Every structure is written in structure tokens, then in C-alpha cells.
Amino acid sequence: MIFRQLFEPESSTYTYLFGCPDTGEAVLLDPVMETVERDLSVLQELGLRLSYTLETHIHADHVTSACRLRSLTGCKVAYPEMDGLPCADVGVSEVNALSIGGITFHPLFTPGHTESHHSYLLSLPGTSRVFTGDALLIDGCGRTDFQGGDAAALYDSIHEKIFKLPGDTLVFPAHDYQHRHVSTVAQERERNPRLGAGRTLDEFVEIMANLNLPYPKRIDIAVPANRLCGDCPDEEALMAIEPEGPSRQG
């Protein structure tokens, strides 16, 4: 598998590129509008053609480039099926995986950050990787106070879907604000200050209730645009908003 972890600094978002060397197909997970040219350049350098964009959830901190990449490359747009977005070409779910060549993305329903959030598990020879979106971050997790967020649901998602994976499963989050790139399930089980080290559900709910995070600056534009797969009707207004600070996801 061809794999790249790409970073967008304003929202501290990781976009992940996956390529099948046998078929030349590629998937971009959680692409960002501001990095369209970079992503197209990387695809060209690697000799790959984009088959799908794939999202973990409807983002509040940035606008996806899914719609624009579809118009430029002819790729298909994949979202969690339960979002029910008319703009999506493909819906994924725990019973409807997404595959390119020899690579299969196994969706894991992990609500809590948002009500329809999905993570994606890739089982490869010698290693497994889970792409946790905004649900599980390195030494943290996504906030749970908007878009159908629910702290108890997130606690259950992490403990029942992610922490039960083998300990050496690599964890790749959608964001990191300290320039960290990867963790493991064992590391997060053992030392995640919110969810690991034996934290109880009641303790986690109390932690999340007292974060006192500021309202996301881009949410009023980003969420409606992302419900249109990134077809933002007011892109100039979006670009004029100041970048998110590191407290956005908590």
C-alpha cells in the first residue's frame, strides 16, 4: 500500500492518502479545501488516480474538498451512509465497506463527537491501522457539545470499538496540535488522560462537561458546506474567518 499522512496547519487536520500499487487507485480521507492543489500534486507525483474521497464525519472546523476534487478528477464522494447526504455518491457503514484494489476500509460506527461519526480500520499484512477521525485523538478526544455530540456515547464508542482492537494497532487521528503523528491502541488505553488508565464513564462525562471550549469559529459556514460535500456557497466568507486555535476539539 502507498500511504501518506498530509497536514493542513490552519485547522491542524490530517488528510490521509492511500494508494493501491497494483491498480493505481487512490483514496483521500478527510481532505481539506485549502489543500486541493497540494493533494493533486502528491497524487500526480505518485502516479495515482483518485477514485474516492472519504469522510469520517461532517466537520465543523474546515470545509471538505470532496466536491471540488470530484469536479476536477471525476472521483466519487463517500460519506457515512447514515448522514444521508444527497451529494454523496457512496454511503459506507459497518456492513458496507469501501475497497480499492487490495485495500479495504472497514467502517466502525463511533458516535459521540458527532452522532454519525465513523472510524476506519485497515487490516494489512503485519499491521493494522485505525483512522479515528475526531473521536479518539492522541492523549485526548474530540469535543462532544455540538452536532449531536454525546460524552457517554463517545466513551462507549472508544471502549467498545477501538480499545478492544489489538494493542499494537496503529492509531491515526484527524487532528493533532502538538505535531504528533501516530499512537497505538495500547498507548491510548494506558495513558489517555480522558479515556484511558481506568477512567470511568462518570469521570469522563464530568471531564467533557467542564472543558468550557469556545464556539468553533467556522462551524456556521463549515457544517452547511460539508452537508453539501464541500460545495460552499460563501467561500470568501469562510476564508476571511480567522484560523481555529488549538482548543477547538479540546
Instruction: Give the name of the CATH architecture.
Output: 4-Layer Sandwich
Secondary-structure element order, N to C: EEEHEHEEEEEEEEHEEHHHH
Largest beta-sheet characterization: 6 strands, mixed
Parts with pLDDT < 50 across at least 5 consecutive residues: none
Number of helices: 7
Distance between the termini: 32 Å
How many structural domains does the protein architecture include?
Answer: 1
The helical percent reads 10-25%
Q: How do the strands of the widest beta sheet line up side by side?
A: 1-2-3-4-5-6
> Which homologous superfamily in CATH is the superfamily?
Ribonuclease Z/Hydroxyacylglutathione hydrolase-like
Oligomeric grouping of the chains: single chain
What is the highest CATH level, the class? Alpha Beta
Outline, from the CA principal axes?
globular
Organism: Sphingomonas parva
Keywords: Acetylation, Dioxygenase, Hydrolase, Iron, Metal-binding, Oxidoreductase, Transit peptide
GO molecular function: hydrolase activity; metal ion binding; sulfur dioxygenase activity
Protein name: MBL fold metallo-hydrolase
